[in-house]
Amino acid sequence: MLFWIFVILVIIGLVIIKTNCIDYLGGLLALIGGIGVVISLIIMTLEYTTINPYLESNREIYKALTYKVENDVCKNEFGLLSKDVLDDIQDWNKDVRFYQNIQYDFWLGIYYPNVFDEFKTIDYESYSR
Q1: Residue 47 class from Cβ within 10 Å (0-12 exposed, 13-18 middle, 19+ buried)?
Q2: Domain boundary assignment for the chain
Q3: % of the chain surpassing 70 pLDDT
């Protein structure tokens, strides 16, 4: 939605310039909207062109984290996961939930590709016993 607001500002600015009804307002709106559109397009280009390596990286992180929690190497003498592994899992779960929610956000969803649903959170409580 934010992207389309910038596009609408450019259109309104150009219409005001064309009709010459208000001095400087049309140019100002077109300039602000144009800057917003350019920045938005740069962000979208960077997000969408680098998504495949990002996804591969996250798949490997998920595999490594699940490997750590499924083996007894990362557990202490009480059968609990180490703090470092729990912190890594917490960061993973936080990032997964954030991207799964923001990709459908009304205002910012256009900037995030709809590919994050393939990732699952890791239930560390089931591995601590």
Answers
A1: middle
A2: 1-49, 50-129
A3: 93
